[in-house]
Each structure stands twice: as C-alpha cells, then as structure tokens.
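Quick start: what a row looks like.
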Amino acid sequence: MDTKTGRLLLELQKIAAQKSQRDLEGSWFTGSSTYLDALVEEVTEVKAELSSGRQCFLEDELGDLLWDFVCLIEHLELEGKINKERVFQRSVNKYAQRVTERSPDETWDDVKLRQKLELEKECHSKF
C-alpha cells in the first residue's frame, strides 16, 4: 500500500471513530449489527455495479462497503467484543503466511488448515 492510501485509510478510521461516538447518542443505531446489516446491503450494490460497467459508481459502492466495515470494527471494539489492532494484525499475519511466506510445496489450503488448527488451539488455551 502506498503512503497516500495508508493516510487515506487512517483518515477514514478517524472519521469512523467520531461517527461511532455520534451513533451512541442517536436513536437509529442498534449496535454493531447495524453496520453488519449495512455490509450485506452494500455487497449486493457492489455486485450490481460490477456488471454495470460504471467505474465511478463501483468505486463509490466499494467506498460504502469499506466505510461500513470500518464502522463495524469501531463499534465491535466499543462493545468490548474485539481489539481492532489485533483484527488487523491477525489479517496481516494470516495472509502473509498464505501469500508471501508459504513454502513452495504448500498450497493455500494447506496453510489455511494449519491456521485453523492453530486458532482452535489458541482459543482453547484461553479457557
């Protein structure tokens, strides 16, 4: 990711953090599921724009999808259900192992299975 993209993503996260606080004050918001439901709607809209050939609308809908995801992460953290930094770190680790760190004789599915077993072990060790 180039520096400009990283800065834009950080800016979006800052705006989402402010929005999350406003959500808590409003009457329309019903918890993190509000944004989870919005994600489902936006995926449908992205699919529709993929076949339309209208790049500006596709980019706009992808932006909405990203926005709802970032807001979902903010609210899940506010609700104490996740640590958003760990979510991002887990994602980086997972896909680095699958893409850039896997050995030539390993398949994506091999790594995915290994990761699932490691995650189950981690999850069980906390109880």
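That is the whole record. Helices lie at 3-25, 33-50, 55-78, 84-99, 108-125. The longest helix spans residues 55-78.
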